[in-house]
């Protein structure tokens, strides 16, 4: 499934989440998708995004997202990623998903009376925030590339201002 479609599925699932465990499961799904998109872009995305994409692919890697009972029952959606058709659209959608997941996690953290769940929310919020920073960085790089033109701001011999 294309990244753009997976992101929309994730946004709908997050919006339909009822209760703390559903929100946590969807936040982990979003983070797993962010890591998967990052890893894919690090391998075969635009060259100027690869460093940020590699970092995105590593965020929260130590977290046990796949051990979450709600995720294990249905598996990680990110495993269905078949490609990224439009990098800018995918990154913009991923930014929305990560932002919405962060907001939902704040709600869970504020409403819970359980220490364990509270700290899981804080850890998940940190991961979502760091991922969102990386996604914004990649979007800025794409905007710079478009602003600088097809040659990335490098002038060819015909437009050089230097003499012979």
Please provide a brief summary of the model.
By secondary structure, the chain is mainly α. The protein has six helices and no strands. Helix 1 (3-15) packs parallel to helix 5, helix 3 runs antiparallel to helix 6 and helix 5 (87-111) runs antiparallel to helix 6 (115-148).
Record the SSE blueprint:
Blueprint: H1 3-15, H2 20-44, H3 50-58, H4 69-74, H5 87-111, H6 115-148
Descriptive notes:
This protein is mainly α. The protein is 68% helix and 0% strand. The protein is built from 6 helices and no strands. Helix 1 (3-15) runs antiparallel to helix 2 (20-44), helix 3 runs antiparallel to helix 6 and helix 5 (87-111) packs antiparallel against helix 6 (115-148). The protein is elongated and about 55 Å long. The protein starts with a helix and ends in a 16-residue tail after the last helix. The model is unreliable at 153-164 (pLDDT under 50).
What string, H for helix and E for strand, traces the elements in order?
HHHHHH
Count of alpha/pi helices: 6
Q: How far apart lie the N and C ends?
A: 53 Å
The main sheet comes to: none
What gross morphology would you assign?
elongated
Tags for this model:
single chain; 6 helices; 0% strand; 164 residues; disordered C terminus; mainly alpha
